[in-house]
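Recall that a protein's primary structure is simply its ordered list of amino acids. Everything else, from secondary elements to tertiary packing, is in principle encoded there. The following example makes that idea concrete.
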Amino acid sequence: MSVDVECEVSNILGKNSRILEICHLIEMLGKTEVTVLIQGESGTGKELIANTIHAHSSRANKPFIKVDCATLSDTFLERELFGHKTSAFTGDSYTLKGGFELATGGTILLDEIGNLSLSAQAKLLRVLQKGEIFSLGSSIPISIDVRVIATTNVVLKKAVKQGAFREDLFYRLGMITISLPTLRERKEDIPILVKNYIEFENYEAKQHIEGITPKALAVLMEYEWPGNVRELKNTIEHAAIVENTDTIHVHSLPHYIFKGSRNRASIDSEEFNLKMKRSFYERQLILRALIKADWVKSRAARLLGIDQRNLSYFIRKHHILDHDERRRVRGI
């Protein structure tokens, strides 16, 4: 179905019908305190949706705390969630706050909740039912006022059937479930996203990219995007860095995107353009030398076997930012 309108919720771009439905739902969720489960493949923007729900809620001016459930062991995860009481060598004790306490009045994001052990799931269920937590090492309950948003890249219904996820926790979390479409299911949004990512690169990295060629955009439209919108953003960042004109061309896209492309003939016409290829590899060589030399121009010039003044010329020619400027605009 063709849709002529775009999402008007800040930070969410697209005109795909499912994206529009999600935008409408987010506006409705801003008026509630209900727990939300966001599910979708890696790279589909689950954390962005969670942030946007918080930003459109009455808790927007309160903390938004993210806890990664995928990378921590049970013990460390419980400390992250509930905090812990510890004793110093002097005999004094103090309590370190966990995510639930830090998020008081605001929102806690339980990222990739499908990775929680059954033991941790039981403790989380109790928190959701009772509205209170116990710090590790303490028997005193702490009342909490926190909105819970959870994300997962696994199908929790299947995990419930397999006994890997508690059914009661699943229904407690999934009072409202948002299922994000993959990028291959919303390809009509690719031009909108590409335009936004180019603007982002121009602002963040002081690039001067004005757009993308129809051939390059055709390649992006054909690719299946297993990494979803995150992969598309990284692709545009890559292209903006290696491109030496004010427009992203096919030759600036990562080569793996071309595999099996029906646009192979048009790609080849740019792939074998001597002027383009020479300029592309010249820029790549300059970049590699600068990086190896830790952005010290005199050292990079020696690596390249050229005069430092010539290196400065190539830096200007290929719009390569110097190290100090890269640190300032990228926060490195």
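Residues 264-268, 325-332 have pLDDT under 50 and may be disordered. The CA atoms of residues 273 and 285 lie 18 Å apart.
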